[in-house]
């Protein structure tokens, strides 16, 4: 009988790219590394809002305040059907450098066919850098169910109404 354990198909785009891995047995996320060597990175400049291709020099990408960049990982991967990879910033990148994921968590669907990219924003008031092969984010796998949507009246099922803050303030 074949092994029914789902797996992720990993397709490195460069000879030196290794699959993401969990750093400890208790880690929920698989670390995603920046693959910057010899690359150009798509950046939307914070001040001008202009989209540009920035060449990486000395294996380091510099991001000015407000810049949003698509950090390449150097690989493609196929997540099993019924799973998604939720991309989240590493806490050290947020705390020490002020990098955030503007779409956090980002979702990589099981039918996404291209190189995995990590969208980061420099939310700090200073220029920050990302180094080649640096762990920038993590991917946490999550199962999902696709359900049909049907038209119908929702109605009120509890006394909770009013949207934001409807459960109270304390």
What do you see in this structure?
The protein is mainly beta. It has 1 helix and 12 strands, in the order βββββββαβββββ. Strands 1, 3, 4, 6, 8 and 10 form a 6-stranded antiparallel beta sheet that branches. A 4-stranded antiparallel beta sheet has the order 2-12-7-9. A two-stranded antiparallel sheet has the order 5-11. It is globular. 23% of the residues are buried.
Features:
single chain, 170 residues, mainly beta, six-stranded antiparallel beta sheet, four-stranded antiparallel beta sheet, 1 helix, 12 strands, globular
Please bin the fraction of helical residues: under 10%
- The coarse overall form would be globular
Low-confidence stretches: none
Main beta sheet: strand number and arrangement?
A: 6 strands, antiparallel
Distance between the termini: 55 Å
Topology as H/E string?
EEEEEEEHEEEEE
Rg, please? Answer: 19 Å
Number of helices: 1
Count the strands?
A: 12
Q: Report strand %.
A: 35-45%
Mean pLDDT: 93
Given helix and strand content, the structural type is mainly beta
